[in-house]
Amino acid sequence: MSIASYAIVLGTAQDGGIPHAGCYKPCCERARQNPKLRRLPSSLALIDPLTRQRFIIDCTPEFPRQLDLLNAHSDRSWGLSGVLLTHAHIGHYTGLIHLGREVMGTRALPVYAMPHMAEFIRSNAPWRQLVDFGHIELRDLEADQSLSLTENLSVIPHLVPHRAEISETVGFTITGSQNSAFYLPDIDDFESWDRSLEAVIEQVDRAWIDGTFFDAKELPGRDLSTIPHPLISETLKRLETSSKALRVKVHFIHLNHSNPVCQTDHPAYRQIQASGCQLAADGDRFEL
Ligand SMILES: [Zn+2]
Ligand SMILES: [Zn+2]
Ligand SMILES: [Zn+2]
């Protein structure tokens, strides 16, 4: 077994996963029939075989299946050493319910969160019970401050603009002993961010970024301005002038069920392939 730390992609869909509750269109009916087309909500595992520790970024409603996926790619006896949260939208933290006494009953599992996110968990049922009964231990993340998870793995949270009804939102820079990566499932748009997307990608070896929608035609009858995300078509256009070496690092995640890139026979999928950027898949492995 390799001794380098590594990441496993535990999910690549938007919060509702694919198939999506209540969607009976081909996008989801096909996935109901063919398990290979299913995608779990976005989540990333960080594994350090040297210290025998495993962490997950975001704890989704599909956490039980994602723990199985993690166990298929690492030693389950290593348990879970911590959870890092990006923000308070339902696909990113509600899996925490499985840590309580009804299911796993963890003891003082570190949950790393930004101040508003931590306060939300501390003050609202049923999440506060996890704190009150000692199942989790909230640890504050600080924007742009490096947090060392193990001697071989560290993360830095970066604030990003994203509908902040309940909490702030962060993406993470992840640094291992060999490679680094950037993980950002949700952002309203790259233009109003105080960082340059290209500069961020430049500094890492892999960038998993928000690819929720392909283009504006995707959700007829729903106002995309109420659920803003960068469109893959626009991100591809933006990165057209960047080097091929930069584009190949980009892996889109957080795909909405309506996103045509999920269908390999769709022109949108071929457009990604032609662009040099990639589509992440559940179970992908990346050495850190
Ligand atoms: Zn989300
Ligand atoms: Zn659907
Ligand atoms: Zn969100």
Describe, in plain words, how this protein is organized in 3D.
With 288 residues, the protein is of the alpha/beta class. It has helices at 26-33, 63-73, 90-93, 115-123, 127-132, 197-202, 232-239, 244-247, 267-275, and strands spanning 6-11, 43-48, 53-57, 82-84, 109-113, 136-140, 147-150, 153-160, 169-175, 180-184, 206-210, 250-253, 278-279, 285-287. The strands form two sheets. Strands 6-5-4-3-2-1-14 form a seven-stranded mixed beta sheet. A seven-stranded mixed beta sheet has the order 7-8-9-10-11-12-13, with helices on one face. Helix 3 links the parallel strand 4 (82-84) and strand 5 (109-113). The longest helix is centred in the first third of the chain and has 11 residues, at 63-73. It is globular, with a radius of gyration of 18 Å. The mean pLDDT is 96. Bound molecules: zinc ion (3 copies).
